[in-house]
Amino acid sequence: MSTTLSTPTLTLRIVPPGMYAGRGHVVLERAFKVYRRGWMLIFSGFFEPLFYLFSLGTGLHSLVGTVIGPGGHPISYSAFIAPALLASSAMNGAIYDSTMNVFFKMKYGKIYDGMLATSLGPMDVAIGEIAWALIRGGLYSAGFLVVMFAMGLTASLWALALLPAALLIAFAFGAVGMSVTTYMKTIQDLDMVQVVILPMFLFSGTFYGLDVYPRWLQIAVECLPLNQGIELLRGLNAGVLDAAMLGHVAYFAAMAAAGVVVTSRRLDKLLLR
Is residue 9 pLDDT above 60, yes or no? Predict the structure, then answer.
């Protein structure tokens, strides 16, 4: 007897009945209506990496000059850090929306309790909220990318792929951020977001290459999601493509899929059972 699972059976194991009604766009529509009057709040996190670019790109650039970029080609220090800060913009926009905002909606506003009392399923809520985090991260990325083009920090036509790649990064961070938020019990738990994000931002090769680390630490940092995003965007910006980029894309795709599934199951457990 064949033990191979049929596609419908496999789908039901991943997405049980009642988890998804195909109406995640309703949650997204609600987010647009809520933020249409406070749209400036959406762009607040865009300025942090921009300030880093202007300050370090101006100050350290005059001291450092050129550095070795992807493919062993010399590039300006500003062009070296710009793709890394673009990855950080995508991360910031997605992670802060999918953690802090989701926590208050879930614990204090009880927004999701009301949503799940309708025909919406937990996966609809997860997809809608993660999609909003993706859009916020995408807005940060698009704005930062405009600055990069204006400053002449792009070196290849492959730079046109920077925005889709940044959206993938935002999607992955948004999905994982929301899944982690479902485990938070008190507002103090949100402090752990900064405890994780800030060191990852500083030590993932944002401002310097990983060759300054001993090999064992290089391997550890290479496993971090932000470093994966930085390497992907640096390669695209320089037009240096290799097989490792497919690994970066697969990394974020798996990260996003795991985040959506875990978030859906956690919302089902917390709010429906």
Answer: no
Looking at the whole model, is its pTM more than 0.90?
Answer: no
Q: Calculate mean pLDDT across residues 161-179.
A: 92
CA atoms lying within 13 Å on the CB side of residue 101: 18
| Distance between CA atoms of residues 65 and 208, nearest Å | 13
Domain ranges of the chain: 29-271
Lowest mean pLDDT among 33-42, 174-183, 218-227: 33-42
Q: Would you give the DSSP letter of residue 98? A: I
User: Residue 110: left if φ>0, alpha if ψ -120 to 50, beta else—which one?
Assistant: left
Q: 267, exposed or middle or buried, with CB in 10 Å at 0-12, 13-18, 19+?
A: buried
- Tell me how far apart the 2 most distant CA atoms of the chain are, in Å: 71
Gap between the Cα atoms of 163 and 17, Å rounded: 35
Average pLDDT of the residues in 167-174: 93
- CA dist 52 and 61 (Å) reads 12
pLDDT at 221: 94
Mapping DSSP to helix (H, G, I), strand (E, B) and coil, where does residue 68 land? Answer: strand
Query: Residue 159: is its pLDDT beyond 80?
Result: yes
- Which residues 6+ apart lie within 8 Å of 189 measured at CB? 103
Taken in order 245, 251, 256, 261, the sign of the CA dihedral is positive
* Contact assessment for residue 124 and residue 130, using Cβ atoms and an 8 Å cutoff: no
- For residue 169, what are the CA distances in angstroms to 68, 131, 152, 248, 253? 24, 12, 23, 10, 9
- What does the buried/exposed string (b/e) look like for 99-121 if buried means 16 or more CB atoms within 10 Å of the residue's CB? bebbbebbeeeebbeebbeeebb
